[in-house]
Structure formats: C-alpha cells, structure tokens
Amino acid sequence: MKTQQLGNTDIQVTRLCYGTMRIAGTWDKDKLDAAGIEGGIKSLESAVEAGYNFIDHADIYGDTTCEMIYGKALEKHPDWRDKLVVATKCGIRFEDEPPGTPHRYDFSGEHIRWSIDESLKRLNLERIDLYQLHRPDWLADPEEIASALVEIHNAGKVRYFGVSNFKPSLVAAVQSALPFPLVSNQVQIHLLRLDCFEDGTIDQCLEKKMTPMAWSPLAQGRIAAAFDYDAQLPQNEHDVAAVARLRPVLAEVANSYSTTPLAVVLAWLMRHPSKIIPILGSTRPEAIKAATKADEIDLDRNSWYRILFAARGKKLE
After folding, report:
1. From the CB of residue 249, how many other CB atoms can be counted at a distance below 10 Å?
2. Catalytic residue positions?
3. Is the pTM of this model over 0.85?
C-alpha cells in the first residue's frame, strides 16, 4: 500500500488505517476469553498482512481490551514495534467510573496524564506515535490541556498529538495554547454524512496541514446497500434515498476503473486534497484485504463530483 505524510510530521502512514474498535468482539471485558484474544490478534495480523502500517486505538475500545490485545500481539510479533504506527485516544469516561459518576468527556490534566500511562501499559509500548483527544469536553480548558500534553511529550511518552470529533473553533482554541501543532482530526466522514466538507473542518485541515482521519467511512455498513443487494438497507429516509441514488453511479464508476464499488467509496474520500485516511474496522480478513483496492484508484474530477451529487441528491448551488 502507498504511504503519505501524517500531518506535517516525519511519519509515513498507509493511506488506509486499521481501526481496532471491534477486535475484542465484545465491550464487556469480563466476557473476553483466550479465544477472543486470539481472534483479535488474528484480525491485527490480517491487517498487517494486507499492508496496513497505521493502527488506530482508543482507551475505551472493548472497555480497554482492544489495547490489551494489541499488547499481546506485540509479544507474538516484536517486529511490529518498528513496523507499525500506533494511534490511540483518551477522554471518554463511562458511567459509574468511579461509581456514581455520569457518562462524560474528560480533558482534565489529571485524566490525560493517567490515561496515557494506562494506554502505554496495555499496548505494551514505551511511546505512542499519535495521541488524540477523543470527544470534545464541554469543560475543555486549552491551557490545562496544553500543560498535560507538553508534560507527556517532554517525558517521551508521545511523539505527536491530534484530536477527534472537534469542530474548527475548538481545534483553534486548543492549538492556541500549544507550542507544537496538532497533526490530525479524526471525524465521521462518509457519503451519507458530508458535514465536514461544509462546516470548515476539512478546510482547516488543509490550512493547518492536519490529516483528516475518517471513522466509519462506510457509515456502519449502511453504504454497503449501495452495492450489495444482500446488505440491510438503512433505516432512515435520507439514507435510503441516498443509497438508491448512489447504487448506479458507484457501479458505473467501479466498472470504468475495473474495480469494486467498495473501493470507489473509499477512494472517493482519499481523492480529496486534504488526504483523508479512511479507518477500516472490519474483522473479516477478506474485507480488510478488499479495502486496499482503494489505494490503486485515483478518481478523476468528473467521477468524484458525480458521486458527490448522488450522495447529496442535488447539484451545487
């Protein structure tokens, strides 16, 4: 798979990222057994064998178990330490952790400092390549956040920092307090959700040379109905109509490039000059491999806009 620069860093990452959210097969860590751990390792192995070098985690995935599974995988594959680029996230806290507290987002300095140490232990790493603030904390204090990030950076625990699900205003606020640039913004972008192209998020990534990372690039599988007649149709009126419009366009474009509609959906994101990196979260080896075909496609402008118009249901004003 081809690589690209992560933000304006010295790190080269594959144009597709492998997301680990599902590798444990459960969000109840008490239900994870040896077979589940081995299954998660096999998913990671499938991604590496398919050519992915960029792996995305979060401390909450599988209620901490997905990071732990990666740590176990490193014991089996020590060469991954130098071969793979590892990202993880912090800031989401579950209800009753500790008891009596609500589900919330937490960018307090105390929580950031604690979270990085816990992630490093689970991942079996000494340093994280990309550490991202997960979902906007309504009590986010840029100076407090910056103090914690600078501290863990100076301690050698993190190479670079990014954010996730941030609007441009909060990116700017946090960046104003930092002595180094934020290098990524992981946001939900797909053909059924185009907000980031219109609310300034992608424009800011272009301006600041931040890499957009697209989580759920297939809309939790809803887009699959546009090219897989056995797939379950979306449940809301907007998505059903968009899928119906996309189906013939994706088929035609895929045929013209001698590829699959799945690859075209991903290549549509990757074609943008901001260099969007789709995050693939399947645990099926065949799906992990099939997605890499998107790396072989450079969509022409006409095809890109035809797909955009089908997704929007209207042309540009």
Report:
1. 19
2. 61
3. yes
